[in-house]
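Q: Got a minute? One more chain.
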Amino acid sequence: MLGAIVGDIVGSVYEWDNIKTKDFPLFRDDCFFTDDTVMTCAVAEAIMNDGQKDDFIDAMKKYGRMYPDAGYGARFNTWIQSNDCSPYNSFGNGSAMRVSPCVWMMDATTGELPSEVKRLAQLSAEVTHNHPEGIKGAMATADAIFMCRYFLGGDSSDNPAEIKRRIKEHIEKEYGYDLSKTLDEIRPTYRFNETCQDTVPQAIVAFLESTDFEDAIRNAISLGGDSDTLAAITGSIAEAAYGIPEWIKDKAYSYLDEPLKEVLRRWEETVVIK
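A: Always. Here it is, folded:
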């Protein structure tokens, strides 16, 4: 889940000031965490509590109210502040940017997404984003992360290019996303978009064309658009494939406050990553 947080922090300063290049300082003094980080931590806490529907609702509302100025969408912010727990049929990219903790709860012993991971990923989305596209965005992201954990996250990654081809083929077939355009083809006309269907495919392509974790984050931000969320989704996938360099982990932690660091500490103690 830290990969999503890194992407969020790095992309925070470019969301409203897009750049179309990979040549930029990875961390700036004015970087900050946004709703992407807050909700990723909320999903992690929900899973640690028991991973049931009410756990997701309670954690999202709790952390949303703790961080009221984190940059939520208008409808999600209304949901956070209200006593109404009903989903509101969203297909925004928030379902995909917060899903990554769900994928680390099971050992990656096969390349197929386990039923419990599917349950958690779908539930983390549909408590608010119950539109089919909102659920699909979360599920596709979760699937990509899990495939990376199994095929690229260990000693079995003897042919990364072939593994990425298989991931691309699977996501296209299973979820109907078009991953055929390259970053160079996407970049010139890509604009700000908060939907899953116009964020998740681009985030996956940013990973597919990457050479390491940092390169993946740079790819995502170079597209422009909803930079922090795009990079959060890409970062969550890239973490599973490459791991995160220690210096990037340490730098990301320096932007977090104590309550969010505490969630990460408890997560690392609770989840045994294999």
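A: The chain has 14 helices and no strands.
Q: Perfect, thanks.
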